[in-house]
Hints:
The structure holds 2 protein chains of 2 kinds. Chain A contains 1 helix and 1 strand; from the N terminus they run βα. By secondary structure, chain A is mainly alpha-helical. Chain A has one helix at residues 28-56; one strand at 9-11. Chain B is of the alpha+beta class. Chain B is built from 9 helices and 4 strands. Chain B is globular and about 55 Å long. The chains are: A mainly alpha, B alpha+beta. Chain A binds chain B through residues 1-2, 4-27, 34, 38, and chain B through 8, 12, 15-18, 20-21, 45-46, 49, 57, 60-61, 64-67, 72, 75-76, 79, 173, 176-178, 180-184, 186-187, 189-198, 201, 204-205, 208. Strand 1 of chain A pairs parallel with strand 4 of chain B, so a sheet runs across the interface.
Amino acid sequence: MSDSPKPLTILGAPDAEACVDDACLIPTALVEEIAVTELSLLVEEIAEGDRLETSGS
Amino acid sequence: MTEPIKIDVWSDVACPWCFIGKRKLEAGIEQFGGEVEVEFHSFELSPDTPADFAGSTVEFLAERKGMPKDQVVQMLERVTGIASAVGLEYDFDSVIHTKTLKAHELLHFAKAHGKQLELKERLMSAYFEQGRNVSSPDELAALAADVGLNREAALSALRESTYHDDVQADIAQARELGIQGVPFFVVNGKYGISGAQEASTFAAALAQVRDEEAA
Protein backbone atom coordinates (compact mmCIF):
# COMPACT_ATOMS: atom_id res chain seq x y z
CA MET A 1 0.00 0.00 0.00
CA SER A 2 1.24 3.48 -0.79
CA ASP A 3 1.43 6.25 1.83
CA SER A 4 -1.16 8.45 0.13
CA PRO A 5 -4.00 6.21 -0.98
CA LYS A 6 -6.15 7.05 -4.00
CA PRO A 7 -9.94 6.80 -3.73
CA LEU A 8 -11.08 3.19 -4.04
CA THR A 9 -13.67 1.85 -6.45
CA ILE A 10 -16.08 -0.16 -4.32
CA LEU A 11 -17.11 -3.60 -5.55
CA GLY A 12 -19.54 -6.18 -4.18
CA ALA A 13 -22.90 -6.13 -2.46
CA PRO A 14 -23.50 -2.97 -0.41
CA ASP A 15 -25.21 -4.86 2.42
CA ALA A 16 -22.57 -7.50 3.19
CA GLU A 17 -22.26 -7.96 6.93
CA ALA A 18 -19.43 -6.15 8.65
CA CYS A 19 -18.51 -4.77 12.05
CA VAL A 20 -18.33 -1.04 12.66
CA ASP A 21 -17.82 -1.25 16.42
CA ASP A 22 -18.22 -3.73 19.24
CA ALA A 23 -21.92 -3.97 18.37
CA CYS A 24 -21.20 -5.60 15.05
CA LEU A 25 -23.55 -8.44 15.82
CA ILE A 26 -26.46 -6.07 16.01
CA PRO A 27 -28.25 -5.51 12.70
CA THR A 28 -28.33 -1.86 11.63
CA ALA A 29 -32.12 -1.60 11.93
CA LEU A 30 -31.92 -2.72 15.53
CA VAL A 31 -29.20 -0.17 16.34
CA GLU A 32 -31.50 2.55 14.98
CA GLU A 33 -34.34 1.18 17.10
CA ILE A 34 -32.17 1.32 20.23
CA ALA A 35 -31.13 4.88 19.45
CA VAL A 36 -34.77 5.91 19.11
CA THR A 37 -35.64 4.19 22.41
CA GLU A 38 -32.79 5.96 24.18
CA LEU A 39 -33.91 9.28 22.73
CA SER A 40 -37.50 8.65 23.84
CA LEU A 41 -36.29 7.90 27.36
CA LEU A 42 -34.26 11.11 27.38
CA VAL A 43 -37.27 13.15 26.26
CA GLU A 44 -39.34 11.54 29.02
CA GLU A 45 -36.65 12.32 31.61
CA ILE A 46 -36.51 15.96 30.57
CA ALA A 47 -40.31 16.20 30.65
CA GLU A 48 -40.36 14.62 34.11
CA GLY A 49 -37.69 17.08 35.27
CA ASP A 50 -39.78 19.98 33.97
CA ARG A 51 -42.85 18.64 35.78
CA LEU A 52 -40.96 18.36 39.07
CA GLU A 53 -39.52 21.83 38.65
CA THR A 54 -42.98 23.31 37.89
CA SER A 55 -44.66 21.57 40.78
CA GLY A 56 -41.81 22.57 43.14
CA SER A 57 -41.94 26.26 42.27
CA MET B 1 5.43 -13.84 -15.51
CA THR B 2 2.72 -11.65 -13.98
CA GLU B 3 2.83 -10.16 -10.51
CA PRO B 4 0.50 -11.72 -7.93
CA ILE B 5 -2.63 -9.72 -7.14
CA LYS B 6 -2.28 -8.04 -3.76
CA ILE B 7 -5.13 -8.06 -1.26
CA ASP B 8 -4.77 -5.88 1.83
CA VAL B 9 -7.28 -6.86 4.50
CA TRP B 10 -8.27 -4.69 7.45
CA SER B 11 -9.82 -6.75 10.21
CA ASP B 12 -9.99 -7.30 13.94
CA VAL B 13 -9.25 -10.55 15.75
CA ALA B 14 -12.51 -10.16 17.71
CA CYS B 15 -14.70 -9.51 14.67
CA PRO B 16 -17.03 -12.42 13.87
CA TRP B 17 -17.67 -11.26 10.29
CA CYS B 18 -13.91 -10.95 9.71
CA PHE B 19 -13.32 -14.65 10.38
CA ILE B 20 -16.31 -15.55 8.19
CA GLY B 21 -15.04 -13.08 5.55
CA LYS B 22 -11.60 -14.68 5.72
CA ARG B 23 -13.08 -18.08 4.88
CA LYS B 24 -15.10 -16.59 2.01
CA LEU B 25 -12.02 -14.78 0.69
CA GLU B 26 -10.05 -18.04 0.79
CA ALA B 27 -12.82 -19.76 -1.14
CA GLY B 28 -12.91 -16.87 -3.62
CA ILE B 29 -9.15 -17.07 -4.18
CA GLU B 30 -9.50 -20.80 -4.80
CA GLN B 31 -12.29 -20.18 -7.32
CA PHE B 32 -10.15 -17.52 -9.02
CA GLY B 33 -7.22 -19.88 -9.31
CA GLY B 34 -4.56 -17.23 -9.91
CA GLU B 35 -1.68 -16.05 -7.78
CA VAL B 36 -2.72 -13.82 -4.89
CA GLU B 37 -0.79 -12.30 -2.01
CA VAL B 38 -2.76 -11.48 1.15
CA GLU B 39 -1.61 -9.11 3.89
CA PHE B 40 -3.61 -8.36 7.04
CA HIS B 41 -3.79 -4.95 8.67
CA SER B 42 -4.89 -3.95 12.15
CA PHE B 43 -8.26 -2.48 13.00
CA GLU B 44 -9.43 -2.17 16.62
CA LEU B 45 -13.22 -2.27 16.69
CA SER B 46 -13.50 -1.40 20.34
CA PRO B 47 -10.30 0.27 21.57
CA ASP B 48 -11.93 1.23 24.87
CA THR B 49 -12.59 -2.39 25.85
CA PRO B 50 -10.69 -3.03 29.07
CA ALA B 51 -8.06 -5.77 28.70
CA ASP B 52 -9.26 -7.22 31.99
CA PHE B 53 -12.99 -7.22 31.20
CA ALA B 54 -14.22 -10.25 33.08
CA GLY B 55 -17.49 -10.97 31.29
CA SER B 56 -18.74 -12.78 28.26
CA THR B 57 -19.65 -11.27 24.88
CA VAL B 58 -23.32 -11.43 25.93
CA GLU B 59 -22.64 -9.48 29.12
CA PHE B 60 -20.45 -6.97 27.31
CA LEU B 61 -23.01 -6.22 24.59
CA ALA B 62 -25.91 -6.18 27.02
CA GLU B 63 -24.11 -3.73 29.33
CA ARG B 64 -22.76 -1.56 26.51
CA LYS B 65 -25.89 -1.39 24.39
CA GLY B 66 -28.51 -1.86 27.08
CA MET B 67 -30.00 -4.74 25.12
CA PRO B 68 -31.92 -7.60 26.68
CA LYS B 69 -29.59 -10.54 27.12
CA ASP B 70 -31.91 -12.94 25.34
CA GLN B 71 -31.86 -10.70 22.26
CA VAL B 72 -28.04 -10.70 22.24
CA VAL B 73 -28.07 -14.49 22.65
CA GLN B 74 -30.39 -14.75 19.66
CA MET B 75 -28.04 -12.67 17.52
CA LEU B 76 -25.03 -14.71 18.60
CA GLU B 77 -26.90 -17.87 17.61
CA ARG B 78 -27.51 -16.36 14.18
CA VAL B 79 -23.85 -15.52 13.54
CA THR B 80 -22.82 -18.90 14.96
CA GLY B 81 -25.04 -20.54 12.36
CA ILE B 82 -23.56 -18.50 9.53
CA ALA B 83 -20.04 -19.29 10.76
CA SER B 84 -20.92 -22.96 10.87
CA ALA B 85 -21.90 -22.83 7.20
CA VAL B 86 -18.33 -21.88 6.30
CA GLY B 87 -16.81 -24.51 8.61
CA LEU B 88 -16.18 -22.42 11.73
CA GLU B 89 -17.28 -23.52 15.20
CA TYR B 90 -17.97 -20.33 17.13
CA ASP B 91 -18.44 -20.89 20.85
CA PHE B 92 -19.64 -17.60 22.31
CA ASP B 93 -20.17 -19.20 25.73
CA SER B 94 -16.41 -19.54 26.06
CA VAL B 95 -15.31 -16.34 24.26
CA ILE B 96 -13.27 -14.04 26.52
CA HIS B 97 -14.31 -10.57 25.40
CA THR B 98 -11.23 -8.37 25.64
CA LYS B 99 -9.07 -5.66 24.07
CA THR B 100 -7.22 -6.79 20.93
CA LEU B 101 -4.35 -4.29 20.78
CA LYS B 102 -1.74 -6.83 21.96
CA ALA B 103 -3.01 -9.41 19.49
CA HIS B 104 -2.49 -6.87 16.69
CA GLU B 105 1.02 -6.13 17.94
CA LEU B 106 1.74 -9.85 17.79
CA LEU B 107 0.44 -10.00 14.22
CA HIS B 108 3.01 -7.39 13.24
CA PHE B 109 5.70 -9.38 15.04
CA ALA B 110 4.55 -12.42 13.02
CA LYS B 111 4.61 -10.42 9.78
CA ALA B 112 8.21 -9.43 10.47
CA HIS B 113 8.98 -13.15 10.79
CA GLY B 114 6.98 -14.34 7.78
CA LYS B 115 4.18 -15.98 9.76
CA GLN B 116 1.37 -13.44 9.68
CA LEU B 117 -1.18 -15.56 7.81
CA GLU B 118 -0.66 -18.53 10.10
CA LEU B 119 -0.94 -16.41 13.23
CA LYS B 120 -4.05 -14.57 12.01
CA GLU B 121 -5.81 -17.92 11.60
CA ARG B 122 -4.52 -19.13 14.97
CA LEU B 123 -5.66 -16.01 16.84
CA MET B 124 -9.15 -15.94 15.35
CA SER B 125 -9.67 -19.59 16.08
CA ALA B 126 -8.29 -19.11 19.59
CA TYR B 127 -10.73 -16.26 20.21
CA PHE B 128 -13.95 -17.57 18.63
CA GLU B 129 -13.57 -21.33 18.88
CA GLN B 130 -11.36 -22.01 21.87
CA GLY B 131 -12.07 -19.35 24.50
CA ARG B 132 -8.46 -18.20 24.73
CA ASN B 133 -7.50 -14.81 26.18
CA VAL B 134 -6.01 -12.81 23.30
CA SER B 135 -4.94 -9.89 25.48
CA SER B 136 -2.73 -11.91 27.80
CA PRO B 137 0.93 -11.69 26.72
CA ASP B 138 1.65 -15.19 28.05
CA GLU B 139 -1.28 -16.70 26.22
CA LEU B 140 -0.42 -14.78 23.03
CA ALA B 141 3.20 -15.94 23.20
CA ALA B 142 1.96 -19.54 23.48
CA LEU B 143 -0.24 -19.02 20.41
CA ALA B 144 2.76 -17.55 18.57
CA ALA B 145 4.73 -20.68 19.42
CA ASP B 146 1.88 -22.79 17.99
CA VAL B 147 2.66 -21.39 14.53
CA GLY B 148 6.41 -21.77 14.87
CA LEU B 149 7.37 -18.36 16.21
CA ASN B 150 9.87 -17.97 19.04
CA ARG B 151 7.87 -17.78 22.27
CA GLU B 152 10.39 -15.71 24.23
CA ALA B 153 10.95 -13.24 21.38
CA ALA B 154 7.19 -12.83 21.00
CA LEU B 155 6.75 -12.25 24.73
CA SER B 156 9.54 -9.70 24.74
CA ALA B 157 8.01 -7.82 21.76
CA LEU B 158 4.64 -7.76 23.52
CA ARG B 159 6.05 -6.56 26.83
CA GLU B 160 8.05 -3.82 25.13
CA SER B 161 5.17 -2.87 22.80
CA THR B 162 7.66 -3.07 19.93
CA TYR B 163 4.93 -3.05 17.27
CA HIS B 164 2.55 -0.56 18.86
CA ASP B 165 3.31 2.12 16.26
CA ASP B 166 2.78 -0.32 13.38
CA VAL B 167 -0.70 -1.09 14.68
CA GLN B 168 -1.51 2.62 14.92
CA ALA B 169 -0.14 3.19 11.39
CA ASP B 170 -2.53 0.53 10.05
CA ILE B 171 -5.45 2.15 11.84
CA ALA B 172 -4.46 5.58 10.49
CA GLN B 173 -4.24 4.16 6.98
CA ALA B 174 -7.71 2.67 7.34
CA ARG B 175 -8.99 6.13 8.29
CA GLU B 176 -7.27 7.66 5.22
CA LEU B 177 -8.93 5.08 3.00
CA GLY B 178 -12.30 5.87 4.53
CA ILE B 179 -12.70 2.40 6.04
CA GLN B 180 -15.46 2.48 8.66
CA GLY B 181 -16.12 -1.18 9.16
CA VAL B 182 -14.35 -4.52 8.87
CA PRO B 183 -13.56 -6.81 7.22
CA PHE B 184 -12.45 -4.51 4.41
CA PHE B 185 -10.46 -5.75 1.43
CA VAL B 186 -8.35 -3.60 -0.90
CA VAL B 187 -7.40 -5.26 -4.16
CA ASN B 188 -4.21 -4.00 -5.84
CA GLY B 189 -4.69 -0.67 -4.04
CA LYS B 190 -7.52 0.11 -6.44
CA TYR B 191 -10.73 -1.69 -5.48
CA GLY B 192 -12.42 -1.81 -2.11
CA ILE B 193 -14.64 -4.68 -0.99
CA SER B 194 -16.54 -4.23 2.26
CA GLY B 195 -17.86 -6.96 4.51
CA ALA B 196 -18.12 -10.73 4.46
CA GLN B 197 -19.02 -10.96 0.78
CA GLU B 198 -19.72 -14.18 -1.08
CA ALA B 199 -16.74 -16.13 -2.43
CA SER B 200 -17.96 -15.49 -5.95
CA THR B 201 -17.70 -11.71 -5.36
CA PHE B 202 -14.03 -12.06 -4.43
CA ALA B 203 -13.39 -14.37 -7.39
CA ALA B 204 -15.08 -11.92 -9.80
CA ALA B 205 -13.11 -8.94 -8.42
CA LEU B 206 -9.85 -10.84 -8.78
CA ALA B 207 -10.69 -11.84 -12.34
CA GLN B 208 -11.55 -8.22 -13.17
CA VAL B 209 -8.23 -6.99 -11.81
CA ARG B 210 -6.33 -9.71 -13.66
CA ASP B 211 -8.06 -8.80 -16.94
CA GLU B 212 -7.35 -5.09 -16.46
CA GLU B 213 -3.70 -5.74 -15.68
CA ALA B 214 -3.38 -7.92 -18.78
CA ALA B 215 -5.05 -5.37 -21.09
